[in-house]
Amino acid sequence: MSAAITFAQALQNPARTPTWAWGKTGMQIAGFSLAGALLAMITTLINFGFLWTLATVAEIFLGCIIALFLPTGLRFLFGVTTPFVTIVILGALWKFWYL
């Protein structure tokens, strides 16, 4: 979710944005990030109930707030790694493997 916010904020200052973020790749990473966050919330609701879903939502928002204080270049680096981290976390939630 933080990747989606980072790419949206890139519109405000294009000079600090890598060129790949403006193309198809940047939009795919932002979309994957948002979809992963939504799937994590839905999966947590199904597997663990409403209280843990609220904890998941709070964790996602806390991560977004912390990411706002990071330098832009580091935020884009985290944005690039988002698809891999999302696959690992969702794989664990869907019990494909254990972390």
How would you describe this protein?
The protein has 99 residues and is an all-alpha fold. It is 75% helix and 0% strand. The chain is built from 4 helices and no strands. It has helices at 2-9, 24-48, 50-68, 72-93. The longest helix is centred in the middle third of the chain and has 25 residues, at 24-48.
Spell out the blueprint of helices and strands.
Blueprint: H1 2-9, H2 24-48, H3 50-68, H4 72-93
Helix pairs in contact: 1-2, 1-4, 2-3, 2-4
Number of structural domains: 1
> Runs with pLDDT <50, length 5+?
none
Order of helices and strands: HHHH
Structural class: mainly alpha
The rounded Rg comes to: 14 Å
Number of helices: 4
First-last Cα distance: 21 Å
Mean pLDDT score, rounded?
A: 84
Give the overall silhouette.
elongated
